[in-house]
Amino acid sequence: MNEPITYKINADRYIMMALEEDITSEDISTNCVMPEYKKGQVELICKQDGIIAGLGVFCRVFEILDDTVEFDMRVKDGDKVTKGELMAVVTGDIRALLSGERTALNYLQRMSGIATYTNSIVKMLEGSKTTLLDTRKTTPNMRIFEKYAVKVGGGSNHRYNLSDGVMLKDNHIGAAGSITKAVKMAKEYASFVHKIEVEVENLDMVREAADAGADIIMLDNMTPEQMKEAIKIIDGRALTECSGNVTKENIQNMIDVGVDYVSSGALTHSAPIMDISLKNLHAI
Fold it and tell me: CB atoms < 10 A from the CB of 11, how many?
């Protein structure tokens, strides 16, 4: 697989947690029908069209359970796959193939669903200047996988977590007293390498954020007309991002606005899973 090394290192502990969630002491069903080692094969089959993502995680689940497992991969992350396509053949201890099946498929179905949904929106933005971003609205302990899936689908990642960058939202501004004060405090506290993003909800806030020296101004839940006016006010003094209930159904409204970025929590919290199965398990 072609995932970054750091992704592989960080992923292992979450995969182990998922396996421990599914196998607290033993897999009773498997131990009933397969009490001892027997080599077998099973086929990974796509049951709907989409973009595949998470094959490395899928494989790693079985590697943890059986270090002799082998994979005959027919596709790679980012490939377009079609209903009925044979994507891989997995060979190994039948007990591991049975016990790891659900966990492996949970990752692969979820990640492929996100990649597929993301890709459908990326295609809608083709030809515009706007880059599609994800958010931190991810499933707990799944962020590393879900954000990777967004990248596979052609989207880009916003900050990974709270340590990554300064984003001053409504409650931060309320705590500081004003946008101007919040930006001033951020510049005094944060390293110069961190950009400062400010969330705004109306044109008065846009003016204040731009005058305060925000690097990025997030236009939250504004109409396309308001966003166009906001961009005129900002006049190149900051990068622009729009957010707020952005989905495949309404993103068309953002294309002609001219913002630099559009962020959508729907990429990770609303993407349907992709239907994928492990079938035809047999001893060899």
Answer: 19
Residue 23 has pLDDT above 80, yes or no: yes
Least confidently predicted of 133-142, 186-195, 253-262: 253-262
Question: How far lies 4's CA from each of 7, 10, 278, in Å?
Answer: 5, 10, 26
User: What is the spatial distance between Cα 154 and Cα 281, in angstroms, rounded to a whole number?
Assistant: 34
Question: What's the pLDDT band for 4 if we cut at 50, 70, 90?
Answer: low
Q: What is the 3-state secondary structure (H, E, C) of 55-102?
A: HHHHHHHHHHHCCCCEEEECCCCCCEECCCCEEEEEEEEHHHHHHHHH
CA-nearest of 222, 263, 221, 214 to 241 is: 263
Per-residue b or e along 42-70, where b marks 16 or more CB atoms closer than 10 Å to that residue's CB? bbbbbebebbbbbbbbbbbbbbbbbeebe
| Among 252, 262, 178, CA closest to 219 | 262
Query: How far apart (Å, rounded) are the C-alpha atoms in residues 154 and 247?
Result: 16
Predicted local confidence at residue 6, as pLDDT: 59
Label residue 263 by pLDDT band (50, 70, 90).
very high
State which H helix or E strand residue 151 sits in.
helix 143-152
List residues bridging with 73 in a β-sheet: 88
What is the pLDDT of the chain when averaged over all its residues?
94
* 3-class SS of residue 253: helix
The predicted model scores a pTM of 0.94
pLDDT at 2 over 80: no
123 is known as an active-site residue? no
Q: Which of 39, 76, 137, 228 is catalytic?
A: 137
Task: Return the closest-CA partner of residue 53 out of 138, 146, 136.
Answer: 146
Amino acid at 63: E
Q: What is the CA radius of gyration of the chain?
A: 23
Q: Is 199 helix (H, G, I), strand (E, B) or coil?
A: strand
